[in-house]
Design goal:
Blueprint lengths: L10 H13 L4 H17 L20 H14 L1
Length: 79
């Protein structure tokens, strides 16, 4: 089921949307629907969502030589 949404925009803005829709080979309605859908999806996603689950990957060795030495010393003493 779909609903109709009517909005009032400036004539220059409507003309800009018409040009952009024509360049994308879409109707103005399709162009606006896509833009609204894209904006709504972006607003509903957390910026941290792309990083969730990233702790499951292998972590590269530390780049700091002092840290690597400290880990190496700890291994030697455990025997």
């Amino acid at each position: 089921m779909s609903d109709t949404l009517t909005i009032r925009v400036l004539a220059v803005e409507k003309a800009r949307w018409e040009r952009a829709a024509a360049a994308a080979r879409e109707t103005v309605a399709e162009y606006v629907r896509g833009a609204v859908r894209q904006r709504a999806q972006a607003a509903s996603h957390s910026p941290w969502e792309t990083h969730l689950g990233s702790a499951d990957v292998a972590v590269p060795a530390p780049t700091n030589a002092n840290v690597r030495r400290a880990f190496a010393r700890r291994r030697r003493h455990k025997g």
